[in-house]
Design brief:
This protein is of the alpha/beta class and 224 residues long. Helices cover 34% and strands 21% of the residues. Helix 1 crosses helix 2. The chain is globular and about 40 Å long.
């Protein structure tokens, strides 16, 4: 690890960074190829910890960001949803080695969000840089119990996407509660907090691929 960078507070976070780098050498988990680059993903993941409650669900976990760092930092119970089998197997290995209170669910979020054992069962839902914001809302809100919070890591939001997300949240039984800028407005990174206020209609999420292809309330969106 870079001697100029302080060690991570938990040895398991250091081990997780090492595991990501080891697997990344043979499998494309993330574009981050150096310890410092993976560390930045970990630090970014930890920025959501103050807003997350257990149990939580992480959508499109990929290499484990932000779900793995959240679980290490908090010991919260949660479910990681990942559709790519090889990535899901890596997540299972990390969960076992680090003894984390997590379950890995292999499959599409659209399908998992309709499963009775997962639908409206979580206090928090996280997602990091997955599709447009209206699409991410459709993939996360169905997992939340009423009163639960979607904690969504985003980049810069254009006015059109922001307006569509506001309208989509209403359709899904939620409301945008806050928009927290990280690193200043020039950075563009933010955490969008969306509170579920009513049960989500049974027609949501729509079938696999449709939320991303036709985001709710976005220009060109559809009702399939």
């Amino acid at each position: 690890m870079n001697a100029e960078r302080p060690a991570l507070a938990d040895a398991r976070l250091e081990r997780y960074v090492a595991l990501v780098l080891e697997r990344n050498a043979v499998q494309n988990l993330t574009a981050a190829r150096t310890p410092d680059a993976v560390f930045e993903h970990v630090r970014d993941s930890l920025s959501v910890v103050p807003y997350v409650r257990e149990p939580f669900v992480d959508i499109g976990s990929g290499g484990g960001f932000p779900g793995i760092p959240i679980a290490i930092a908090t010991s919260y119970r949660g479910v990681l949803v990942e559709s790519v089998v090889k990535k899901a197997r890596f997540l299972e290995e990390v969960v076992r080695e680090l003894a984390l209170p997590l379950e890995v669910r292999v499959g599409r979020a659209e399908d998992a969000g309709r499963a009775p054992e997962l639908r409206e069962r979580f206090a928090s839902a996280t997602a990091r840089a997955v599709s447009s914001l209206p699409a991410v809302l459709e993939l996360t809100i169905p997992f939340l119990s009423v009163g639960g919070l979607a904690v969504l890591q985003r980049g810069r939001l254009e006015a059109r996407e922001r307006t569509a997300a506001h309208d989509a949240s209403i359709v899904l039984g939620a409301t945008i509660e806050d928009d927290v800028a990280l690193g200043g407005e020039l950075d563009g990174r933010r955490i969008v907090l969306v509170r579920k206020v009513a049960p989500t209609g049974q027609r949501f999420p729509r079938r696999a691929g449709i939320p991303a292809k036709r985001p709710l309330c976005f220009e060109g969106g559809g009702d399939d």
